[in-house]
Fold this sequence. Notes:
Oligomer: single chain
Catalytic activity: GMP + ATP = GDP + ADP
Number of strands: 9
InterPro entries: GK/Ca_channel_bsu (IPR008145), Guanylate_kin-like_dom (IPR008144), Guanylate_kinase (IPR017665), Guanylate_kinase_CS (IPR020590), P-loop_NTPase (IPR027417)
Bound molecules: guanosine-5'-diphosphate, adenosine-5'-diphosphate
CATH superfamily: P-loop containing nucleotide triphosphate hydrolases
Pfam families: Guanylate_kin (PF00625)
Subcellular location: Cytoplasm
Domain Guanylate kinase-like: 4-182
CATH architecture: 3-Layer(aba) Sandwich
Amino acid sequence: MKSGKLIVLTGPSGVGKGTLVRSLLTRHPELHLSVSVTTRSPREGEIEGQHYYFVDRSRFEQMLEAEELAEWAEFAGNLYGTPYFALQQGIEEGEFILLEIELEGARQIRNKFPEAVRIFILPPSWEELERRLRSRGLDSESAIARRLLRAKAEIEAAGEFDFQVINDDLEVALTGLESVLFVNC
Length: 185
Ligand SMILES: Nc1nc2c(ncn2[C@@H]2O[C@H](COP(=O)(O)OP(=O)(O)O)[C@@H](O)[C@H]2O)c(=O)[nH]1
Ligand SMILES: Nc1ncnc2c1ncn2[C@@H]1O[C@H](COP(=O)(O)OP(=O)(O)O)[C@@H](O)[C@H]1O
C-alpha cells in the first residue's frame, strides 16, 4: 500500500495560512485537509466538519482521555486538536494530508511522525501581520491582542521547521509552497 505524507503548516495567526490552504486545495485536488476539533465558537461563515468540528470543553477532554487526538494545544483561550481519524484514512490511501496547526501541535507531530514535512509561514513584516489580523474583521480586540502575543513566540521558532515560506505576494508564496510539496517532498 502506498503511504501518504503529512504536511504541517504553521505560522502566526493572520499570516494567511487559511488563505494559502484554500488556494492549494482548489489547485491540487489530491491534497486533503485534516479537519481539527476545537472549543472555539464558530466564526461567521464557518461550517461544522469543513472548517472545524466545534465541540465543548468536556467533549474535547473526553477525546483527549480516549487518546483520540494525534496532537492538541491551547491557543488564545481555546483548545484545538487533530483527531487520528482525520489522518489515518488519507495516509493509508497514499494521499497528502495538510495539517494547519500552531507551534506546540507541530512539535508533537514532529515527535510522533518524524517523517512529516513541516513548513513555517512568515509574514513580510510585523506591521503587515497586525494589519491582516485586523482587516480580517473576524476577531474581537482582545482575541487579536492574544493572537499577537502568541505570534511573537511562534515567529521566534520558525527556524525549527524544515522550510520557511514568506507570505508577501500570495502567488509567490503559493509557488514556494508548491515547490516544497511537489519538488522537495
Ligand atoms: N495544535 C493545533 N493547532 C490548531 C489546530 N487547528 C487549528 N490550530 C491552530 O490554532 C490557531 C488558531 O486558529 P483559529 O482560531 O482558526 O484562528 P486563526 O489562525 O487566527 O484563523 C491557528 O494557529 C491554527 O493553526 C489543531 O488541530 N491543533
Ligand atoms: N499574501 C497576502 N497578501 C495580503 N493579504 C493576505 C495575504 N494572505 C492572506 N491575506 C489576508 O490576511 C488575512 C488573514 O488571512 P488568514 O488566511 O485568515 O490567516 P490565518 O489563517 O493564518 O489566520 C485575511 O484577510 C486574508 O485575506
